[in-house]
Amino acid sequence: MTTASASASGPVPGHGGRGASGPATVTATDLSLRFGGTRALDGVSLRLSHGVTGLLGPNGAGKTTLLRVLATAVPPDGGRFTALGHDPGTPSGRLALRRTLGYLPQNPGFHPDFTAFDFVDYVAILKELTDRTARLGEVRRVLEAVDLSEVRGKRLKRLSGGMRQRVALAAALVGDPGFLVLDEPTVGLDPEQRMRFRELIAQAGEGRTVLLSTHQTEDVAMLCHRVVVLARGRVRFEGAPAELTARAAGRVWSSAERDPNALAGWRTGMGAFRNVGDPPKGADLVEPTLEDGYLLVLDGDDAAVGA
Amino acid sequence: MTWHVSEDDLRLYAQGELAPPLLWSADAHLTGCAPCRARLAETADPVALDAAWERLDAELDAPRPSTVERLLVRLGVADHTARLLAATPVLRRSWLLSVLFLLVMTVLAVRMVGQPMLFLALAPLLPLAGVALSYGPSLDPTYEMAVVAPLHGFRLLMIRTVAVLTAGLVCNGAATLALPGYGLLAVAWLLPALALTGTGLALSTRLGSVLAPSLVGGGWLALLAVGELQTRTHETLAPFTAAGQAAAAGVAAVAALLLYQGRDRFDARPLGGFRDGGAV
């Protein structure tokens, strides 16, 4: 199967088939959403299961919109989805889903005067944990889980960006949600903070359904058992990371000069050019990476056809 | 040690039924008072005692609530509601001081001119603006997290509305006391304030949390401008006459009814989109 045959609402490689692990916990069918004249989501269908699924896509691909729809922040114009057996199209289903949802938005807002503990406590109240003793215990638990117990009394404005992201993750983990939606949580973090965050997300993915939006193909390669590529509001690929990497098999080559026919080419640290695209005859093929596969899928349906 | 936890409070504490602020006092006292800890051990069964120690541990981990929160709890507000109110942007000291400053300047202006209309025109707009800014994407940084939370959006809105409205009405009321020469006319802002606030809220699910109150506020000023043109000098403007007050009461009642009927809309979609401009 190729992405050429994948219509806006139709199947894409790996969809619900090979590479899928475990039964589907979240199923979306033909989701669409329009803002003014822009189709932010254009017939998105996907299936998620337990573990971490990566959502890759360029800026403006519709990643944040898709996450907002799945997190029940915005209702879709068309299509439907169910998550953990709940249908958010009904008020009772939406409430039931929200009770088992953890959401880390792209820009988690903070009340600057709140401490880390205050903020997580506030989110715990929004999650209906009104019993003080149980709530305080839960806040302690999630702050420990993200290794922030030591700074719980510090005001958020005095914490580093990485620590604030961990506070936001702790807030998302309140109530032990079964479905965790994380919108670019590693953006702006230094490599060490990113590694620490990856560990936390990997832990969070044990026994849960986690959807992780990211620009970093490394995040997907290291964390995810599934990956969805979104571009212009449509799913361009859905499958295992290894399948996405395999898309670039035989399509990455090394040369002394940049190949003008290559889809993308750049000089590596070793001095040679790494080219991605349709290789010329006799090209010096090299091992592809997940990023190469991602670039080829993003090139559009035509590039994906040739894979 | 000047006091010890009473037998009754100790028993309630051991059963996990002691409520703040007495709970906080007991927590603080038990950490430093060995005799009371010993009495607690005698009072409680071992399982309950373990739970009490766990609770104490959690309480000690929690930062001290802010002054506003402690005050609210002492006034009888549940601690979780007090935390929700503490997160209301317009209840912060800087906002309240701005409102007070504005009112003081208005009262001074009214006293200089000898005409209360400036105050009566402004006073209804303050609660409208305060309520509009207390819930929604424009000023609440955690709005997106609140939208997807199971806590009913309408409930959160009402909790904040009541608090902001109370604060606004108290400020306006204090300003009214500074204008004793105008009798009942000086409180003629109250019903228009309720009407404007209710209408702004009722329209916010359709027009968003910025456009709705802006239109309502603009409509109020337009109404006053038209009234000013049609009223002779030294006559009371129409909204502050008996008929105008009755109309304001009617509008407030209808707005409250519409707001209640449309309460589920606050959970269905965000008010006017998010701060980053996406998703309307």
Automatic annotation (TrEMBL), chain A:
Which InterPro entries does this UniProt record tie to the protein? AAA+_ATPase, ABC_transporter-like_ATP-bd, ABC_transporter-like_CS, P-loop_NTPase
Against SMART domains, the record matches this protein to:
AAA
Keywords attached to this entry? ATP-binding, Nucleotide-binding, Transport
Gene Ontology molecular function terms on file: ATP binding; ATP hydrolysis activity
Could you tell me what this protein is called?
A: ABC transporter ATP-binding protein
Where are the annotated segments for Disordered?
Answer: 1-25
Instruction: Give the organism the record lists.
Output: Streptomyces humidus
Q: Please tell me whether the keyword Transport is annotated for this protein.
A: yes
UniProtKB/TrEMBL annotation, chain B:
Q: Where are the transmembrane segments?
A: 94-112, 118-136, 157-175, 181-203, 210-227, 239-260
Q: Does the keyword Nucleotide-binding apply?
A: no
Ranges in a coiled coil: none
Keyword set, alphabetical order: Membrane, Transcription, Transcription regulation, Transmembrane, Transmembrane helix
Name of the molecule in the record: Zf-HC2 domain-containing protein
Supply the source organism for this entry: Streptomyces humidus
